[in-house]
Please model this.
Amino acid sequence: MGGRRASIARLLIVLWTLVILAFLYLPMISVVLASFTKKRYFSFPITAWDTVWYEKALESLSVRNIIATSLSVAVMVTAFSVVLGFCSALAFARYDWKGRKQFQKMILLPIFFPQAVLGLALLLWFTNIGIVTSWKTAVFAHMVWIVPIVTLIMSIQVYSFDPALEEAAFDLGASRRQVLKEITLPILAPGIVSGAIFAFLLSWGNFPLSLFSTGADQTVPEWLYAKMVMGYTPLVPTLGSLTMGGAAVVVVLVLIGFQIRRMRQR
Amino acid sequence: MAEAMAGPTSPPWHAKAGAWLRQPGVLAALPTTLFLSIGFAGPLVIVLVYSFMPPRTFSMFQAPTLVNFVSVVTDSYYISFFWSLGLSTVTVVLLLLVCYPIAYGMAKLFGRWANLVTVLVALPLLISENIRLFGWVLFLLKNGILDGSLQALFGLTIPSLVYSVPAIVLGLTYVYLPFMLFPLVIGLSMVPQSLKEAAADLGATRLQIFREVEMPLAMPGILIGAMLTFILTLGSLAESKILGGQAVVMIADDIESAFTYAQNWPKGAVLSVLLIVFSGVLVFFLFRRIDLDRIIGRR
Model:
């Protein structure tokens, strides 16, 4: 019968999924391995393990500088994108209004757009209206790409939001502010948090937009790229590992937070 | 005439516009719409204007000319464009083949494990692609992890696999995999299992079910995945630079060097316009076929 064939197919699909997951993490494992090597140039198997490059990275002033730049950009992008994204997610998924379909498609356009070209277009734009590019213009550039993504992420939560809850609160005499504070925001909180995390980490890791919009300032991905293409230093895998570790910590904390919230609600 | 037909009770146009503006949806849409007009539409217009400026000029107020568009053909600007088209096509086909079984598993077989797979696939997106591509360099390099392991285990030596066209395709497939996988999952979960069973009961073969039931119903997801990855790979920059070395110049590299080393902004602009128009046409046809409320909201 078909049952046996179906179970073989199922097994193959599971195996294939595991292979691809391994494929996704392989290069990251490579970077971490390389960061613990003592030698100046990487070769495998690693003969001398050391954490000397971590010490050097943490001492280096220029490394601290670029991390500070990347953090400032990511924090600003997150703050602005969450506010803009929240409004537009409501327009995207909550309200019925004439022009909504067009609005939804407009939101998607910057995502369906080559980022490097967007970065260059923004550089031309800044230059022509007489703004000197720096990390602040990078915030603006990142937002053009990140606000739409945050909107989409929050929209998923907004779609599952029942407007009747708000109406019930109004009927019971709640003010507009009370409804927002007591009903809308708490229910949409997971979407807002997910949106914020994505905004922060996508900005932190972005390269094509930063490359053209930071001017004299440099973010971590730009610095890594410059060192990879010319003037390799063993700090590249080290700093790479550090940023991966940072991202992992953020994600784990958030997942724990969601878990606690879920347990409290039960 | 129109006014007479609308009758005396119809409000004037500015009252209608005022009423439209006061809708909560319009108010909520306003900030982002303004932001994207300044941050997205504005820059695109500037690029378009520059593509009509004489070569090697740095101002927008010269007499417009079509020289750059002619140069696309005569000065072989199109070579990098065709390389990009070719590499993107190969990548999209590979991604469809790689992701379809996983997406099927996530939509139909894995049950609650599907959430874990989703998280595991999404996590690498949060790490800069530069770092991940560099990991591939370390893996594929001469004396790298693959070569070193083969030497240590089997005494085999292989040539460096990095800095070649296949390495670029590997990098593109790797980086854009989630952008194909997630739309496919959404598309496939829109196919009701009962419909496939009904088709099987009516005597359809596996291939027939796939072609006549599954594919058409999953098409919005397949199209979004294919278009998104095609456009993103078409404009990719880091993959060919980090993994490709000097093997191929892709269009985004070409655009970048036109704006930086070559200092020929109009050339960069005309190549950008080529890319924008090409992606724009694809997106236009895609958007005509999909309904976002259904895909994202599952309404």
Summary: The radius of gyration of chain A is 23 Å. The longest helix of chain A spans residues 2-35.
